[in-house]
Amino acid sequence: MHIAVAGNIGSGKTTLTQMLSKHYKWKAEYESVDDNPYLDDFYNEMQRWSFNLQVYFLNSRFRQVMDIRKKDKDVIQDRTIYEDAYIFAPNLHAMGLMPSRDFENYMSLFELMEEFLQAPDLLIYLRASIPTLVNQIQKRGREYETNIRLDYLNRLNERYEAWISKYDKGNLLIIDVDSNNFPEVPEDLGEIINKVDSKIHGLF
User: Fold this and answer.
1) Which residue in 72, 74, 78, 176 is the catalytic one?
2) What is the pTM of this model?
Protein backbone atom coordinates (compact mmCIF):
# COMPACT_ATOMS: atom_id res chain seq x y z
CA MET A 1 0.00 0.00 0.00
CA HIS A 2 1.25 3.47 -0.90
CA ILE A 3 0.18 6.40 1.31
CA ALA A 4 1.39 9.94 0.50
CA VAL A 5 1.31 13.18 2.51
CA ALA A 6 0.93 16.44 0.55
CA GLY A 7 0.96 20.06 1.66
CA ASN A 8 2.65 23.43 1.45
CA ILE A 9 6.08 24.23 2.92
CA GLY A 10 5.73 24.13 6.72
CA SER A 11 2.39 22.29 6.80
CA GLY A 12 3.83 19.38 8.81
CA LYS A 13 4.27 16.70 6.12
CA THR A 14 7.52 15.24 7.48
CA THR A 15 6.26 15.21 11.08
CA LEU A 16 3.01 13.45 10.15
CA THR A 17 4.91 11.01 7.92
CA GLN A 18 7.14 10.11 10.89
CA MET A 19 4.21 9.73 13.28
CA LEU A 20 2.07 7.58 10.97
CA SER A 21 5.10 5.51 9.97
CA LYS A 22 5.73 4.74 13.64
CA HIS A 23 2.07 4.02 14.42
CA TYR A 24 1.36 1.74 11.45
CA LYS A 25 4.91 0.35 11.06
CA TRP A 26 4.98 1.69 7.51
CA LYS A 27 8.28 2.36 5.75
CA ALA A 28 8.78 6.13 5.44
CA GLU A 29 10.15 7.76 2.29
CA TYR A 30 11.26 11.36 2.75
CA GLU A 31 11.94 14.29 0.48
CA SER A 32 15.66 14.61 -0.26
CA VAL A 33 16.28 18.03 1.31
CA ASP A 34 19.59 17.77 3.16
CA ASP A 35 21.47 16.29 0.19
CA ASN A 36 19.79 18.50 -2.43
CA PRO A 37 22.63 20.36 -4.21
CA TYR A 38 20.37 23.17 -5.51
CA LEU A 39 18.24 24.32 -2.56
CA ASP A 40 20.58 26.95 -1.09
CA ASP A 41 21.33 28.40 -4.51
CA PHE A 42 17.64 28.40 -5.44
CA TYR A 43 16.49 30.40 -2.40
CA ASN A 44 19.30 32.92 -3.01
CA GLU A 45 18.75 33.24 -6.78
CA MET A 46 15.43 31.68 -7.78
CA GLN A 47 15.40 32.59 -11.45
CA ARG A 48 18.86 31.15 -12.11
CA TRP A 49 18.28 27.82 -10.36
CA SER A 50 14.53 27.11 -10.64
CA PHE A 51 14.77 24.68 -13.58
CA ASN A 52 17.71 22.77 -12.08
CA LEU A 53 15.94 22.45 -8.73
CA GLN A 54 12.65 21.25 -10.22
CA VAL A 55 14.31 18.67 -12.48
CA TYR A 56 16.27 17.38 -9.48
CA PHE A 57 13.03 16.96 -7.48
CA LEU A 58 11.24 15.39 -10.45
CA ASN A 59 14.04 12.88 -10.96
CA SER A 60 14.38 11.93 -7.28
CA ARG A 61 10.60 11.65 -6.77
CA PHE A 62 10.15 9.51 -9.90
CA ARG A 63 12.87 7.12 -8.70
CA GLN A 64 11.22 7.04 -5.28
CA VAL A 65 7.79 6.11 -6.71
CA MET A 66 9.32 3.43 -8.94
CA ASP A 67 11.11 1.94 -5.90
CA ILE A 68 7.91 2.05 -3.81
CA ARG A 69 6.00 0.06 -6.43
CA LYS A 70 8.78 -2.50 -6.82
CA LYS A 71 8.86 -3.33 -3.10
CA ASP A 72 6.09 -5.36 -1.55
CA LYS A 73 5.83 -3.11 1.51
CA ASP A 74 3.44 -0.55 2.98
CA VAL A 75 5.05 2.85 2.40
CA ILE A 76 4.22 6.41 3.46
CA GLN A 77 5.76 9.13 1.30
CA ASP A 78 6.57 12.71 2.28
CA ARG A 79 5.33 14.83 -0.69
CA THR A 80 4.30 13.59 -4.14
CA ILE A 81 5.59 13.99 -7.68
CA TYR A 82 2.27 15.67 -8.57
CA GLU A 83 3.07 18.61 -6.30
CA ASP A 84 6.28 19.24 -8.21
CA ALA A 85 4.49 19.23 -11.55
CA TYR A 86 1.16 20.88 -10.71
CA ILE A 87 2.20 23.36 -8.02
CA PHE A 88 5.88 24.26 -7.72
CA ALA A 89 6.98 24.33 -11.37
CA PRO A 90 3.85 26.18 -12.69
CA ASN A 91 4.14 28.65 -9.81
CA LEU A 92 7.76 29.45 -10.68
CA HIS A 93 6.78 29.89 -14.32
CA ALA A 94 3.83 32.16 -13.44
CA MET A 95 6.09 34.30 -11.22
CA GLY A 96 8.55 34.77 -14.08
CA LEU A 97 11.17 32.69 -12.24
CA MET A 98 11.24 29.86 -14.80
CA PRO A 99 11.43 30.76 -18.53
CA SER A 100 8.70 29.33 -20.78
CA ARG A 101 11.09 27.09 -22.71
CA ASP A 102 12.38 25.55 -19.46
CA PHE A 103 8.83 25.09 -18.15
CA GLU A 104 7.68 23.44 -21.40
CA ASN A 105 10.72 21.16 -21.32
CA TYR A 106 9.97 20.28 -17.69
CA MET A 107 6.28 19.52 -18.32
CA SER A 108 7.14 17.39 -21.36
CA LEU A 109 9.46 15.34 -19.14
CA PHE A 110 6.78 14.97 -16.45
CA GLU A 111 4.12 13.91 -18.96
CA LEU A 112 6.45 11.17 -20.19
CA MET A 113 7.10 10.02 -16.61
CA GLU A 114 3.40 10.11 -15.76
CA GLU A 115 2.72 7.27 -18.19
CA PHE A 116 4.70 5.01 -15.83
CA LEU A 117 3.25 6.35 -12.57
CA GLN A 118 0.65 4.83 -10.29
CA ALA A 119 -1.06 7.26 -7.92
CA PRO A 120 -0.97 6.71 -4.12
CA ASP A 121 -3.70 4.49 -2.68
CA LEU A 122 -4.40 7.29 -0.21
CA LEU A 123 -3.37 10.96 -0.40
CA ILE A 124 -3.41 12.94 2.88
CA TYR A 125 -3.52 16.69 2.23
CA LEU A 126 -2.48 19.03 5.05
CA ARG A 127 -4.37 22.29 4.62
CA ALA A 128 -2.86 25.28 6.48
CA SER A 129 -3.23 29.07 6.48
CA ILE A 130 -0.23 31.34 5.88
CA PRO A 131 0.17 32.30 9.61
CA THR A 132 0.32 28.58 10.52
CA LEU A 133 2.87 27.88 7.78
CA VAL A 134 5.06 30.84 8.79
CA ASN A 135 4.92 29.82 12.46
CA GLN A 136 6.00 26.27 11.68
CA ILE A 137 8.73 27.35 9.26
CA GLN A 138 10.16 29.67 11.93
CA LYS A 139 9.97 26.92 14.56
CA ARG A 140 12.11 24.49 12.59
CA GLY A 141 14.64 27.19 11.69
CA ARG A 142 16.09 25.89 8.42
CA GLU A 143 18.55 28.53 7.22
CA TYR A 144 17.68 28.24 3.52
CA GLU A 145 13.99 28.91 4.33
CA THR A 146 14.60 32.27 6.00
CA ASN A 147 14.26 34.06 2.63
CA ILE A 148 10.86 32.57 1.70
CA ARG A 149 8.46 35.39 0.87
CA LEU A 150 4.83 35.48 2.05
CA ASP A 151 3.53 36.03 -1.46
CA TYR A 152 5.40 32.88 -2.56
CA LEU A 153 3.70 30.81 0.19
CA ASN A 154 0.35 32.36 -0.65
CA ARG A 155 0.65 31.53 -4.35
CA LEU A 156 1.57 27.95 -3.46
CA ASN A 157 -1.47 27.69 -1.16
CA GLU A 158 -3.76 28.86 -3.96
CA ARG A 159 -2.32 26.24 -6.31
CA TYR A 160 -2.62 23.51 -3.70
CA GLU A 161 -6.30 24.31 -3.18
CA ALA A 162 -6.94 24.34 -6.94
CA TRP A 163 -5.15 20.98 -7.35
CA ILE A 164 -6.90 19.30 -4.42
CA SER A 165 -10.34 20.54 -5.53
CA LYS A 166 -9.90 18.53 -8.76
CA TYR A 167 -7.89 15.59 -7.40
CA ASP A 168 -9.36 12.34 -8.77
CA LYS A 169 -6.42 9.94 -8.89
CA GLY A 170 -7.39 8.03 -5.74
CA ASN A 171 -8.60 8.21 -2.14
CA LEU A 172 -8.19 11.63 -0.49
CA LEU A 173 -8.14 12.72 3.17
CA ILE A 174 -7.96 16.46 4.02
CA ILE A 175 -6.62 17.54 7.43
CA ASP A 176 -7.06 21.15 8.58
CA VAL A 177 -3.77 21.92 10.33
CA ASP A 178 -5.05 25.24 11.71
CA SER A 179 -7.42 23.32 14.00
CA ASN A 180 -5.44 20.09 14.40
CA ASN A 181 -2.15 20.34 16.31
CA PHE A 182 -1.10 16.69 15.78
CA PRO A 183 2.63 17.25 16.54
CA GLU A 184 1.86 18.30 20.13
CA VAL A 185 -1.65 17.06 20.97
CA PRO A 186 -2.05 13.24 21.11
CA GLU A 187 -5.85 13.51 20.76
CA ASP A 188 -5.42 15.41 17.48
CA LEU A 189 -3.08 12.72 16.14
CA GLY A 190 -5.62 10.11 17.27
CA GLU A 191 -8.30 11.91 15.25
CA ILE A 192 -6.13 11.66 12.12
CA ILE A 193 -5.37 7.98 12.76
CA ASN A 194 -9.11 7.24 13.07
CA LYS A 195 -9.75 8.97 9.74
CA VAL A 196 -6.85 7.14 8.08
CA ASP A 197 -8.17 3.83 9.46
CA SER A 198 -11.58 4.40 7.92
CA LYS A 199 -10.04 5.36 4.56
CA ILE A 200 -7.68 2.36 4.54
CA HIS A 201 -10.44 -0.11 5.42
CA GLY A 202 -12.41 1.32 2.50
CA LEU A 203 -9.53 0.35 0.18
CA PHE A 204 -10.03 -3.38 0.73
Assistant:
1) 78
2) 0.90
